[in-house]
């Protein structure tokens, strides 16, 4: 029986990308920065304080189960330093490595597609201007085709800050808030009740078509609720409209060549433009995503790949530059790992990894170019180092080998 599970901790980089300087990210290290802040007492949530997802914490970073899988060994190999306040465990049960990205961008689709064996070697389109970011003809076409009274934003922004600034005007005028970032994205925020969720999705579909000539990786619907700038909050109804990967991923190959099952949990299906996905499960929040992953594992048959994206690390904490919240979310995730490890059957393959970094101590609010952890257990792998992996695609190639599909064009299997 062949069953694999890939858990993507969105933005959980472990530093040390050889080309970080080209992105202005030299020294960025998501795990290392969090561990340092925790060790220095700068990431405590105490006296009733909780993170935006309801966790509290204090003191040095506590990730005993990820440590046993080899997380801190991989981080040491990636950066040359043991993470602050950490000591390496004596016993490691996982096979661990650190992988560098060969895709041109440090965005979510590039990272995920490369993980699935298809790196993005072309350049995405970007909206580089921080104000008046979108070409006027694009804005005019969107307003006309989506029948809008106008748009707000039209700038680079953090998605939570712009709700504070423009949320009320949006509710008053019915103009959606359109914004972008250093990523190849066109994001549209609108109130779920005043504007309507389905209406927002329709506008996004119009935008997706209009943005094809601009080579923009994703349009993202950002629905929110609330009445005032202080209580506007984004909901779990986010939807990503990605373009289709440029070649068949290992997900496609498993589904078509092996008639396998590919189960998407969270935003995985959206990121792969629904290509190669045979079942979609939605859940909101790290715990609910973890529950869904366990439930799918419990009923998974032969030739099944379960892939989960844990978006909150990135969206609720990395981009928000919330170190304590990120640390608390990692610790909560770590506490769930024993349940998963005990649910695995002997020949199952579990892989924990990430799609890019988003160092919460770094200037700005963008992703950071980093290496990602590759933590594996099962499928006959012996515990110990997998070394430096030259591309995230080593994961896709390993999955191709595990499931017996035709090989991927990129990557070297570690199986
Ligand atoms: O600030 P928010 O809306 O979370 O935006 C972030 O989310 C987008 C997708 O990951 C990125 O482009 C990044 O800028
Ligand atoms: Mn991501
Ligand atoms: Mn992100």
Automatic annotation (TrEMBL):
InterPro entries: Alkaline_phosphatase_core_sf (IPR017850), DeoB (IPR010045), Metalloenzyme (IPR006124), Phosphopentomutase_DeoB_cap_sf (IPR024052). Pathway: Carbohydrate degradation; 2-deoxy-D-ribose 1-phosphate degradation; D-glyceraldehyde 3-phosphate and acetaldehyde from 2-deoxy-alpha-D-ribose 1-phosphate: step 1/2. One of its GO terms (biological process) is 2-deoxyribose 1-phosphate catabolic process. One of its GO terms (molecular function) is magnesium ion binding. Keywords: Cytoplasm, Isomerase, Manganese, Metal-binding. It catalyses: alpha-D-ribose 1-phosphate = D-ribose 5-phosphate; 2-deoxy-alpha-D-ribose 1-phosphate = 2-deoxy-D-ribose 5-phosphate. Binds 2 manganese ions. Mn(2+) 2 binds at residues 314, 319, 367. Mn(2+) 1 binds at residues 10, 355-356. It comes from the Bacteria. Signal peptide: none annotated. Its EC number is 5.4.2.7. Residues 2-406 form the Metalloenzyme domain. Gene3D superfamilies: Alkaline Phosphatase, subunit A (3.40.720.10), Phosphopentomutase (3.30.70.1250). Isomerase that catalyzes the conversion of deoxy-ribose 1-phosphate (dRib-1-P) and ribose 1-phosphate (Rib-1-P) to deoxy-ribose 5-phosphate (dRib-5-P) and ribose 5-phosphate (Rib-5-P), respectively. Belongs to the phosphopentomutase family. This is Phosphopentomutase. It comes from Oceanisphaera profunda. The lineage of its organism: Bacteria, Pseudomonadati, Pseudomonadota, Gammaproteobacteria, Aeromonadales.
């Amino acid at each position: 029986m062949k069953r694999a599970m890939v858990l993507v901790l969105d933005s959980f980089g472990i530093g040390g990308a050889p080309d970080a300087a080209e992105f202005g990210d030299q020294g960025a290290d998501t795990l290392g920065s969090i561990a340092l802040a925790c060790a220095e007492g700068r990431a405590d949530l105490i006296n009733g304080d909780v993170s935006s997802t309801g966790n509290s914490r204090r003191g040095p970073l506590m990730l005993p189960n990820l440590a046993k899988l080899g997380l801190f060994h991989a981080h040491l190999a990636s950066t040359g330093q043991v993470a602050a306040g950490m000591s390496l465990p004596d016993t490691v049960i996982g096979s661990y490595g650190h992988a560098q990205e060969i895709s041109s961008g440090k965005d979510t689709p590039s990272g995920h597609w490369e993980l699935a064996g298809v790196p993005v070697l072309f350049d995405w389109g970007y909206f580089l201007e921080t104000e008046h970011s979108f070409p006027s003809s694009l804005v005019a076409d969107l307003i006309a085709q989506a029948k809008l009274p106008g748009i707000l934003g039209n700038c680079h922004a953090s998605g939570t800050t712009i709700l504070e600034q423009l949320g009320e005007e949006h509710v008053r005028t019915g103009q959606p808030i359109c914004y972008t970032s250093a990523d190849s994205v066109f994001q549209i925020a609108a109130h779920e009740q005043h504007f309507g969720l389905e209406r927002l999705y329709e506008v996004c579909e119009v935008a997706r078509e209009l943005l094809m000539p601009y080579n923009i990786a994703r349009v993202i619907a950002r629905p929110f609720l609330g009445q005032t700038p202080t209580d506007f909050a984004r909901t779990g109804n986010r939807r990503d409209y990605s373009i289709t990967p440029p070649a068949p991923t290992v997900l496609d190959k498993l589904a078509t060549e092996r008639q396998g099952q590919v189960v998407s949990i969270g935003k995985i299906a959206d990121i792969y433009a629904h290509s190669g996905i045979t079942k979609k499960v939605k859940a909101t929040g790290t715990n609910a995503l973890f529950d869904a992953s366990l439930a799918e594992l419990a009923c998974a048959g032969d030739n099944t790949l379960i892939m989960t994206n844990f978006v909150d690390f990135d969206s609720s904490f990395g981009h928000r530059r919330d170190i304590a919240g990120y640390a608390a979310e990692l610790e909560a995730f770590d506490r769930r790992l024993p349940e998963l490890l005990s649910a695995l059957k002997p020949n199952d393959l579990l892989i924990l990894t990430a799609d890019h970094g988003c160092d919460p101590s770094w200037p700005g609010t963008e992703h950071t170019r980093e290496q990602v952890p590759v933590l594996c257990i099962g499928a006959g792998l012996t515990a110990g180092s997998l070394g430096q992996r030259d591309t995230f695609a080593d994961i896709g190639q390993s999955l191709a080998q595990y499931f017996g599909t035709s090989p991927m064009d990129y990557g070297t299997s570690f199986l």
